[in-house]
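Thread: "does anyone have the structure for this chain?"

Original post by V.I.:
We have the sequence but no experimental structure in hand. Need at least a predicted one for the grant figures.
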Amino acid sequence: MLDVGGFSTRTCHGHSRRAFLRTASSLPLTWGLSPAFSTGAINPGKAKSILLVWLWGGPSHLDMFDPKPKAPLEYRGPFSTISTATPGLRFSELLPKTASLSNDFSLVRSHINHSGDHLLAGSIGLTGGEESLGGHPPNFGSIVAKKRISETLPPFVSLADGPIGDGRGPMKGYGGGSWGKAFDPFMVHCSEQGSIQIPALKLIDGLNLGRLDERKTLLKDLDELRRQVDATNFGPWDNLYHQAYGLLTSSDARKAFQLSEESEATRESYGFTSFGQSCLLGRRLVESGIPYVQVNWSQYVEVLYPFSDYGWDTHADNFELLAEWHLPILDRAFSTLLRDLSNRGLLETTLVVCIGEFGRTPRINSIGSRDHWPQCYSSIWAGAGVQPGRTIGESDRYGEHPITDPVTPATVGTTMLELSGISSRERAELKVLPEGRVLHELL
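Reply from O.Q.:
Generated one for you, tokens below.
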């Protein structure tokens, strides 16, 4: 089921929407026609696509990929550790499927961020820098989008029900930043059952299929809306609206979003959760050639609030939530994603990075949980030139600080862009990531 704004359209075995598609196809709404994405193609490098798995909210590195079994109980926590496929490397006991694939990826254990605030740390983590007089730096995906042309599909897709953030609002680094909204990601939401929703088409109140049956009615509505909106603000909105309709008018583009084409066994292997089905959708999108896909664990960081969708901000109930929800879901979906990409021959050309904005306090707090900790955290890298089976960097005996050279968000972004074919010269021309370096230990 493809849910477009306020209405649903069957993706298979359903009713015909010929009138709607006839209307939309008469409009010049393809990705390539937007000036935002016409800066020229580049050598794609080893990574034809980048698939970022964003664990939004601050996953605990000690309870996942950097356990400290010899540390005192107030640091190591209640979970045991297990061996992995890599000699000497141990993971949390709650990640057995991922542990069995450790020879297929490399692990970085020496990340740092410059803030313990979700919105600021998230923005830094996804852009490599902080806001300046020139505005906020663009998201890594926005940079890739600026250098890639796509005729039928968006170059940067972010899988969530709107811009990611917390209870205060969206993070500034989720999209184009100082480059403008034209470089924001194309947002797509995937439900637990794989129903796809496109938030961009919620922009016109009362939008429904009946009102779209006649081209004249649609154009009249757009003209009226254009008169009501200040011209300086209409362009970015118009771009997103055109992108959404361009998607719907291309059968090849729509096919990429149709999870119903997958077998029930495949869909079940990812798990019927929003994250699991989003990982499957992410695989379909890179398979269709989208240069940058960000699979968000959740839209919000919070866990125990009314607007929450169970992010990784596990302040009050870290161990129970990890044991009962987060780690089983992550282990199932992420390990399936890696196997699926490998089996389809996609891992050679797809860079997969799994990371959050920071870790959690190594020392357990007074209520038996963990808080924010930007001083040290971990990530997983696979595919597209990354040498598998390596462990890059090391933290101290309590997991509090790196004892090797720290890996900054700027280094993360620089390495991703380098593998995607965006060279140091091009980064300098774009004025992005001036302090970044390539993490050559991965290559």
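V.I.: this helps a lot. The two ends are 40 Å apart (CA to CA).
O.Q.: and Residues 4-43, 207-216 have pLDDT under 50 and may be disordered.
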